[in-house]
What we know:
The chain has 244 residues and is α/β, with parallel strands linked by helices. It is built from 10 helices and 7 strands. The chain has a 7-stranded mixed sheet with strand order 3-2-1-4-5-7-6, with helices on both faces. Strand 6 and strand 7 (236-240) form a beta hairpin. The longest helix has 22 residues, at 3-24. S-adenosylmethionine binds next to helix 7, strand 2 and helix 8. Residues 84, 106-113, 132-134, 162-164, 183-185 line the site of S-adenosylmethionine.
Amino acid sequence: MESSTLRDAIYAVRKVRLGLERRRLDYGEETRERADRLAEILSASVAELREYEREYDDLEWFHESYADRVAEIHEAGVATDTTHWRDGVTLYVVCRALEVETAVETGVLFGSFDAHILAAMEENGGGALHSVDLPGGPPGPFEYGHLIPDRCRDRWRLHQGDARAVLPGLLEDVGPVDLFLHDSDHRLPHMRFEYETALPRIASGGVLASHDVRLSRLFDRFTGENGLQSCVVCDTGIARRPRQ
Length: 244
Ligand SMILES: C[S@@+](CC[C@H](N)C(=O)[O-])C[C@H]1O[C@@H](n2cnc3c(N)ncnc32)[C@H](O)[C@@H]1O
C-alpha cells in the first residue's frame, strides 16, 4: 500500500473513532468548564472569562446575522457541523481576553470560526484575520466565509491556495501573530507542518489553537515538546506561548 493511501486509511479510522468519542463526550460539562480551563493558561480570571461568555450570549448584532446565514445554508440543503458554535465561543473568549489583533487561520469553509474571531475583534475595536483555504469554495451556492457578518467583514482577508504553499509566506508577511488556528487538513503530517510553521511566528504570550485535537495525540505531544501550556475545550485545543 502506498504511504499516502495508508495515511488516508489511518485518518479514516481516526475519524470514526472521534465520532464515537464525541457521542460519549459531555459537551455540557465541557462548556461549563470552559472558563476554568482557559483561566489556567490565559492571564485572565474565571470571572472575566465568564463575563466574555455572557457578552457573547448577548451579542445581538452577531446572532441575528449568524442565524440568518445558517438558515440559508440549511435551506440550500448543505449540512453544517453543529459542534462548531461551542468551539466558536471558546475562540471568541480567547480573542477577547487576549485582545487579539493579528490572527491567521487555515480552513474556512462557511467561516464559523472566522465569524467568531472577527466578532471578538469587532468588540475589541481592532484587529485583522487572515484565512487560508484551497482554491474553489464551499458546497452549494456560497462563497467561503458565508457566515461572517457584514459588520466585521472588512477585517477579513481570504488567501486561496494550499496552506503548505501559502502559510510560510503569509506568516512572514503579517509579522508576529497573536493567534494561529488550524482547521484545514487534519491528517497528521499536515497538522504537524502547520503547527511547526506557525509556532515561531506566534507572538510572545500568543496562542496556537487547533480544531479536532481529539483525532490524535499530536496536539498534546506537540505542545508538550515545545513547553506550551495547553487545554482542550470541546474539540478545540488552546496552547499559549510563554510571555518573554
Ligand atoms: C473542517 S473545514 C473548516 C471549517 C471552518 N474552520 C469553520 O469554522 O466552519 C476544513 C476546510 O479546510 C480546507 N482545507 C483542506 N485542506 C487544506 C489545505 N491543504 N490548505 C488549505 N485549506 C485546506 C477545506 O477546503 C475546508 O474548507
